[in-house]
């Protein structure tokens, strides 16, 4: 076997251009970008066997944390802004703004999964009011040309609110048919 132009990188023989980087006692794959230092002070990228770093910092409302072994800037808090349908908006501070518009969607057929006793969201009801979410869902879907796929976005938002409040929902995407739209759970 001709190994000209190849090098051993991370225990695997790769073309020289795909060689990873050994940097500060760690190995990084070619093309990998990481945030380093306890204050997220450097953003470093591995390319052609060499690591290059640039200054980096978290935003005003972010903190440097490590999640699942990966360091990064994470928001200090979360909030939700809704475009609740044509002409209806709810801002981060909870204020509602209405603008005139026509709509012909008025069914909770799709949105009822949020408040269904046999649905995947029952464990969240104590943390995030399902009634408000069903109403918001109906308003959001009113202006949608494809309510079924828009529903998955709405359910993902509700699931994120539940998870932010410490509620584990399990395989809600599979139970709602939204598994093909969003990953990971």
UniProtKB/TrEMBL annotation:
Protein name (Swiss-Prot/TrEMBL): VWF/SSPO/Zonadhesin-like cysteine-rich domain-containing protein
One BP annotation, GO: positive regulation of BMP signaling pathway
KW Phosphoprotein (keyword) present: no
Organism the protein comes from: Cyprinodon variegatus
Domain of life the protein comes from: Eukaryota
Chief localization: secreted
Annotated VWF/SSPO/Zonadhesin-like cysteine-rich domain residues: 104-179
Compartments (UniProt record): Secreted
Gene Ontology CC: one annotated term: extracellular region
Record-linked SUPFAM superfamilies: FnI-like domain
Keywords of this entry: Secreted, Signal
């Amino acid at each position: 076997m001709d190994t000209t132009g190849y090098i051993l990188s991370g225990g695997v023989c790769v073309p020289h251009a795909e060689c990873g980087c050994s940097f500060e006692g760690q190995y990084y794959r070619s093309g990998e970008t990481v945030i380093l230092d306890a204050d997220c002070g450097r953003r470093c990228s591995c390319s052609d066997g060499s690591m290059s770093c640039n200054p980096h910092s978290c935003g005003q409302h972010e903190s440097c944390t490590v999640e699942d072994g990966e360091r990064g800037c994470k928001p200090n808090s979360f909030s939700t802004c809704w475009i609740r349908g044509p002409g209806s908006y709810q801002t981060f501070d909870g204020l509602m703004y209405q603008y005139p518009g026509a709509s012909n969607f008025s069914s909770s057929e799709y949105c009822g999964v949020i408040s269904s006793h046999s649905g995947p969201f029952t464990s969240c009801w104590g943390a995030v009011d399902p009634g408000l979410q069903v109403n918001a869902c109906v308003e959001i879907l009113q202006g949608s040309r494809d309510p079924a796929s828009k529903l998955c976005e709405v359910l993902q938002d509700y699931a994120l609110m539940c998870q932010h409040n410490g509620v584990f929902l399990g395989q809600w995407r599979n139970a709602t048919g939204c598994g093909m739209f969003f990953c990971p759970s």
